[in-house]
Amino acid sequence: MEIPYTVEPRPDTGLFNAKLGIWLFLASEVMLFGALFSSYILLRTGAPAWPHGRDEGLNVPLATLNTLILISSSVTMVMAWASVKLGDLKKFRLYMGLTFLCGLGFMVIKGIEYAHKFETHHYPSTNTFLAIYFTLTGLHGLHVLGGMIVNGYFWGPGAKLYGRDPERFANRIEVAGLYWHFVDLVWIFLFPTLYLL
Amino acid sequence: MDHTDAAAIRRQTKIYVAVFAALMVLTVVTVTVSYLHLSTALAIAVALLIASIKGSLVAAYFMHLIDERKAIYAILILTVAFFVVLMFVPSFGNFDQRILR
Amino acid sequence: MTALVDETLAHGHAEHGHEELSFLRKYVFSQDHKVIGLQYGFTSLTFLLFGFSLMMMMRWQLAYPGQPIPWLGRILGETNAPGGIMAPEFYNQLGAMHGTIMVFLGIVPLAVGAFGNYVVPLQIGAPDMAFPKLNMASYWVYFLGGVTMLASFFVPGGAAQSGWTSYPPLSDIAPTGQTVWLFGMLFLIFSSLLGATNFITTIVQLRAPGMTWMRLPFFVWAQLVTSFLLLLAFPALQAAAVLQGMDRLAGTSFFLPSGLSVTGQLLPNSGGGSPLLWQHLFWFLAHPEVYVLILPAFGIVAEVIANNTRKPLWGYRSMVYATVFLGFMSFVVWAHHMFMTGMGTAMSTFFQTTTMIISIPSVIILTALFISLWGASIRFTTPMLFALAFLPMFGIGGLTGLPLGLAPTDIHLHDTYYVIGHFHYVVAPGTIFAMFAGIYYWFPKITGRKMSDFLGRLHFWPSFLFINGVFLPMFIQGMAGVSRRLYDGGYDYSHAQAVLHWNPFMSISAWLLGLAQIPFLINLFWSIKKGAKVGNNPWEATTLEWAAAPSPPLAHGNFPAIPTVVRGPYDYSVPGAPADFTPQHHDLVET
């Protein structure tokens, strides 16, 4: 027996299963990053002194660029979904490809940032600020990586589903998009907290 | 809201571009403000306010929350409530500093 | 295992056009919620037995401190038991791992992974869970977490030994096993998060036509609230585990305060951290976690009581509202585990108040279950014996929690054996008895055969007796001031001398309790092949898993046809009805 409501929405909730599933998962992610934010606040308010990001070697212009890159990737992601809904597989490939590349760019810049910090002897163990900085951005980076793997799969072999069941494929892209936007959303809060305050 | 209508999708595309522009502008604003050397409390308030606006735009339009279903809203409201509880942990955490008597 | 799976997947002759799955796809990497439920069941029961064995070892040291352990002393090796006598470090490992294994590898996977997975889709009239592949993944990630935890015994320095609560700074500087524990926890938490997502989506989206919210069996409501607790509370421990991992592996000081010295040496870490931060994050999860441990038990007991009283549950609606309220409140009581950390009166008052408030829904649920017995035609089946015993046992557990939730009394009781007695009453003769009730109750659905009633009673009565023998004296010892986690059970303390004699008493009770499980093990495995065959609904129950699905349920899709629900879950003894039970759905042609 087929599992109902994988593609068509259930009438009383108006949702297909995966959409509810991904929002539930994102709720748990809110609590995960929330717990880390809470830890940040506790450590900062309990510290006799707390450095500015710039004073600890954080590169604000580079991080600003990264922020713009990630925001752009969110737009290309939602455009990728819209392209599938409009039946344009070529446009989908273009936008999804751009999303992947933006993600790649973000990780590369992150890599450059980290490398520079290690060269100048700024490690997680150096002080509490750097400890929480590396933990928050590192965990976020792992989430970006995860999203890139999913997006890459849908750009590549996963796109075959479009030929067999375009509506189901559109749902999957929407769900992947929701995850990707969330990753962007976390960065929108991380960036000012760590780099600007 | 039914997303399958082609004209509706095209209308939404325009909104996506507008939100994109807004997000870029707000990013520039928040970075610029950080160079103004406001007091810590004010700097935090402004930065979090701008971040909240940006985040709301992403959630409302890119994540389609603005016309989502009740079930999703319910889950998110519940999550936000517990998130707020989590944010109270720091105030419980530093007894020796007498932050909260 | 494969024999059990074969017996439990009824392949009706109407199954056409399904290619036969490979051995691996059918028994190992199955996406069928019934097979996955059984995988969870057998794995978790094995872990429960293992965790229990760890405690049986501990109880030797507590009863006869400094005496060589018979038979086992030699096998444990010179590091863990020099000359056959348990080393303190090894005692601490047993303690920390007993707690961890029982809670995270035993109860939660059994209550949620096994019972939830097997029963929930059947009770709501669904062909499977919403995300079968995710279901399979969550089992194997749990399995991986379990293997990781077991492996920690074999790393240099041994397993985690800072309590299941892993408080820093001690846990930050503990041997390698603690790091393995952290990784194990990350796997287990991830497994639970995937499972919770699956359960909530399934219950919301896959209810059969006519299955409205207030027609759901109480067991399903319990699983729904449990899943929300897992979903929203576990991430805090994930975050904490990441932070502790960073402390141990990357030299950070999230939990290490400045100026900490260990054995006279100042630590090279930067300091600036807060040990209390760990406690907040840990208990933010661990308090909701205890409701994760009890809610599925309430659910099972409710099902068994309704069925064996032949009348509807009293106060179903109140029980549902109480459960939802309980779930919500469980997020704002956590610091009652931290009354002794130096908090001010404002914070203490807040948490005492919320803790007292949260006792109300538990009382409502327990009272409703008790009142359900009034005027009932009670059938003393084996599941019913365990369900009935649950009620007063949970009552004792709950009541003994009250002095712990009030700070003035907690001052004397915190970190004593009183606490151990309290929570074990809730979890052991509480939850575990409910789990046994569930196994005896649903065994015929899973296999089409009944377990032996004789062996069931042989299991129940000694277990009930000896489990009280293990835990009741703990209140006495606790009130005398005997601290927990002492590897000699208080032997060296003058204030403990008067109550020391309870140690051998409790240990012997524990070993006899262990023996009392043998009839259960024999019964379980023997009955799979040789149990008396039964029809589809031997307990004459009203809920869909009994009334609408065959025993065992169909391998593909559970039901011959998805039922339509027309009435509530407990229409027993409806006046004028043809039988003393009226199933929830339209009458189908019974298979």
Describe the structure.
The complex is a heterotrimer of chains A (197), B (101) and C (591). With 197 residues, chain A is mainly alpha-helical. Chain A has one domain: Four Helix Bundle (Hemerythrin (Met), subunit A) (Up-down Bundle), CATH 1.20.120. Chain A has six helices and no strands. Chain B has two domains: 68 residues; 33 residues. In chain B, helix 1 packs antiparallel against helix 2. The N and C termini of chain B lie far apart (49 Å). The model of chain B has no long low-confidence stretch (mean pLDDT 87). With 591 residues, chain C is mostly helical. In chain C, 63% of the residues lie in helices and 1% in strands. The radius of gyration of chain C is 24 Å and the shape is globular. Chains in contact: A-B, A-C, B-C. At the A-B interface, helix 1, helix 2 and helix 6 of A face helix 1, helix 2, helix 3 and helix 4 of B.
How are the secondary structure elements laid out?
The complex is a heterotrimer of chains A (197), B (101) and C (591).
Chain A: H1 17-46, H2 60-85, H3 89-119, H4 128-155, H5 160-164, H6 166-196
Helix pairs in contact in A: 1-4, 1-6, 2-3, 2-6, 3-4, 4-6
Chain B: H1 6-34, H2 40-62, H3 70-87, H4 89-93
Helix pairs in contact in B: 1-2
Chain C: H1 2-8, H2 23-28, H3 33-63, H4 72-75, H5 77-80, H6 88-124, H7 132-151, H8 170-173, H9 177-205, H10 218-250, E1 261-262, E2 265-266, H11 275-309, H12 316-329, H13 345-371, H14 382-405, H15 407-413, H16 417-447, E3 449-450, H17 453-479, H18 502-516, H19 518-530, E4 532-533, H20 544-547
Antiparallel strand pairs in C: 1-2, 3-4
Helix pairs in contact in C: 3-6, 3-7, 3-18, 6-7, 6-9, 6-10, 6-11, 6-16, 7-9, 9-10, 10-11, 10-12, 11-14, 11-16, 12-13, 13-14, 14-16, 14-17, 16-17, 17-18, 17-19
